[in-house]
Amino acid sequence: MALMPKRQKYRKSQRGKIKGKANKGNAVAFGEYGLQSTQAGWINSRQIEAGRITSAHFLKGDGKVHIRIFPHKTVTATPQETRMGKGKGEPEYYVACVKPGSILYEIGGVPKSIAKQVMNRIAHKMPVRCKFVERREQ
Q: What is the pLDDT of residues 21-74, one digit of tens each?
């Protein structure tokens, strides 16, 4: 089952623009290593789930993976062979809007070499460019 919100205030949302860099959610908070986006874009729920499954297969129960993004935005489309007009289409799928600098996944409890391999596999599933980052001591 793909990720989707339990409730929504408005069923159909507008596209909007992804402007600026991430101010919140741009530091590794839960694990030791993270996957940070370097591009803006939409990541749909199936791609997020694919990253989670990839990490679970590779780790085989070792370590802990935290997913820091959640798909809140609906993407709608009108059916094929429908004439112009007749309003906006039904929600097709959900996406997470990602700004440059936002942390997508975090991992803890594994060595750096293993974490780097896991994040590399997850990055292949993402539609935006990503980089491997470590936790900064504060």
A: 999 999 999 999 999 999 999 999 999 999 999 999 999 989 999 999 999 999
For residue 75, count other CB atoms closer than 10 A to its CB: 16
Distances (CA, A) of 117 to 13, 61, 113: 36, 15, 6
Longest dimension (CA), the chain: 58
Q: Where are the beta strands (DSSP E) in 90-129?
A: 90-98, 103-108
110 burial (CB, 10 Å; 0-12 / 13-18 / 19+) is: buried
| Global pTM value | 0.90
